[in-house]
């Protein structure tokens, strides 16, 4: 990528962020249709209602929704919650 064979630092560096942390499992979902903070709020509320969910963080610009839960969530449950909010889970 950077044109240098030696001492290249642009190669992919190892991910230091663990998939699971002591406070739960973090999963990033891609959701289509969100355009503003109101959308984010609706999605966030629906997902927060799912059993085991501890935290929901929505990035409207990219459509990425990070869900922290005590255990791994069922994709269908997440999709249903997103649909209930009026949006679509991309998978
Ligand atoms: Cu909106």
TrEMBL record:
<keyword id="KW-0479">Metal-binding</keyword>
<dbReference type="Pfam" id="PF00403">
    <property type="entry name" value="HMA"/>
</dbReference>
<dbReference type="InterPro" id="IPR006121">
    <property type="entry name" value="HMA_dom"/>
</dbReference>
<dbReference type="InterPro" id="IPR036163">
    <property type="entry name" value="HMA_dom_sf"/>
</dbReference>
<dbReference type="InterPro" id="IPR017969">
    <property type="entry name" value="Heavy-metal-associated_CS"/>
</dbReference>
<feature type="region of interest" description="Disordered">
    <location>
        <begin position="1"/>
        <end position="24"/>
    </location>
</feature>
<feature type="domain" description="HMA">
    <location>
        <begin position="25"/>
        <end position="90"/>
    </location>
</feature>
<dbReference type="GO" id="GO:0046872">
    <property type="term" value="F:metal ion binding"/>
</dbReference>
<protein>
    <submittedName>
        <fullName>Copper chaperone CopZ</fullName>
    </submittedName>
</protein>
């Amino acid at each position: 990528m950077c044109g240098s064979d030696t001492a290249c630092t642009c190669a992919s560096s190892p991910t230091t962020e663990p998939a699971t942390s002591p406070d739960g499992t973090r999963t990033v979902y891609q959701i289509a249709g969100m355009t503003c903070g109101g959308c984010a709020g609706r999605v966030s509320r629906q997902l927060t209602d799912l059993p085991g969910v501890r935290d929901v963080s929505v990035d409207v610009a990219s459509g990425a929704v990070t869900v922290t839960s005590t255990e791994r969530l069922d994709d269908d449950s997440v999709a249903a919650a997103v649909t209930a909010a009026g949006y679509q889970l991309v998978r």
